[in-house]
Amino acid sequence: MESQEIKPSTPQDEHIVENRELNIWEALIPVFALVGMLAYNVYTYGEDALSGSNQFVLLMGAAVAAIVGFFNKVKFDQMLEEVAENIKSTSSSILILLMVGALAGTWLISGIIPTMIYYGLQVLNPSIFLAACVIICAIISVATGSSWTTSATVGIALIGIADALGVPLGMTAGAILSGAYFGDKISPMSDTTNLAPAMAGTDLFTHIRYMLLTTTPTIIVTLIVFIIIGLNLETHGAADTHLILQDIKSAFNVSPWLFLVPIIVIVLIVKKTSPLVALLVGTLLGGVAALVFQPGIVTTIGGGSTLDFTTGYKGIMNAITIDTAVPTDNEALQGLFKAGGMSKMLGTIWLILCAMTFGGIMDAIGALTTISKALLKLFHTTFGLFASTVASCLALNITASDQYLAIVVPGKMYAKAFKEKGLAPENLSRTLEDSGTVTSVLVPWNTCGAYQSGVLGVDTLHYAGYAIFNWLSPFTTLLFAAFGIKIRTLLKK
């Protein structure tokens, strides 16, 4: 074990509601009810569960939690206040989702996404495609500090290339998210990378350096697995590549100049421009590019016969707000030549609002605090403490439906316990990221799972098994804890 001197702990003063403490069975009533209802709902509706029924089930789970709260003398106004705070915390995410839909629309009709697919098909063959997805998304995510922005820009294009190559979209989405969350974890510009050390009581760069110890082997294993999958992958798209390329060129004016738009967006984010602003700029530039490079497509979508101001305005606005499609006779490209605009994201936003309602009431009645404390009491060894932290993060991602709560609540609950065990705070911050940040995307009703599923157009359950980096990370951190690998201790003066 490594050692270091004790440093003062300065976690941020995050608000966590505490009432008369519920017992563990009371706290778990809403969880059991929610899991049971969701299980039956998914069994009944299958892939259509996210079309609306899961959202209502989350509200029913919130209602069960509220009933428990009433018996615990928690005022209804207090519950609504926590729900409002939860929803307020997602306001920027909701706006980003809307802008992602708008960006996808203008990037389609401008030919940006088809151009990426066109050149990508010539460079990325199926045998290296999945590993390349991991590397490309990891680089972009490290530079931007955002897994969300990475999937919303490069990820969408890679999904399109995968569809054209005949690579399964679930595999592709898993590779995209593996790379995106690797970068999100270690980028100093990432909000979760800053939040975790703040909660644990260590500094940012100590946290990043210490986290690399578990993150590096995890991403290496992920790459090896995707290389092996790629070498043994049977696809149907490679033989049709020439025809697909020809059909893309016949539908769009393909030009390398179109790469300027995504490059500008990436540069803006690297320079720490707000992702919301960068996506807005990308959307507007996509509209301008559509008018310059694809005037015929804009005219058609605008419902006119010639391009004038009104037709151009309607064409761009339609692409931004509603479903649009560029006609093609190639069935393999029909799905790629469609975009839903902002309206496509409304279902995801609906899911986020319902998930935040459930999480807010669970927080208000004190259930989240009770569940974390109960998990802590189950373990007495050092490994048990790590395991308890991992379990708490996973439980909060499932019950509170938010990765930030999965970092803040266990961070506040376990900081003292790690110190009492003589463990340096970076042990806690690393564990929070290894289990809280990356697993959020594996839960369909979590804000991250809902967002990524909506943006990439791949159901969470289809990509979860292939998001190797995401589910392997908590196992890696537990492996290090079990064998005492790089577990830094405090030196008492």
What does this structure look like?
The chain has 24 helices and four strands. The protein is globular and about 70 Å long. The N terminus is likely disordered. Helices cover 72% and strands 2% of the residues. With 493 residues, it is mainly α. The two termini are 18 Å apart. The chain has a two-stranded parallel sheet with strand order 1-4. It folds into two domains: 233 residues, no CATH class; 253 residues, no CATH class.
Q: Which SSEs are present, and which pair or pack?
A:
Blueprint: E1 3-5, H1 24-45, H2 53-71, H3 76-89, H4 91-109, H5 112-123, H6 126-144, H7 147-165, H8 169-186, H9 191-200, H10 204-231, H11 241-251, H12 260-270, H13 275-293, H14 295-301, H15 309-321, E2 324-325, H16 331-334, E3 338-339, H17 346-364, H18 367-377, H19 382-399, H20 403-420, H21 425-437, H22 447-456, H23 460-463, H24 468-482, E4 489-491
Parallel strand pairs: 1-4
Antiparallel strand pairs: 2-3
Helix pairs in contact: 1-2, 1-18, 2-17, 3-17, 4-13, 4-15, 5-7, 5-11, 6-7, 6-8, 6-10, 7-8, 7-22, 8-10, 9-20, 9-21, 10-21, 10-24, 12-13, 14-15, 17-22, 18-19, 18-20, 19-20, 19-21, 19-24, 20-21, 21-24
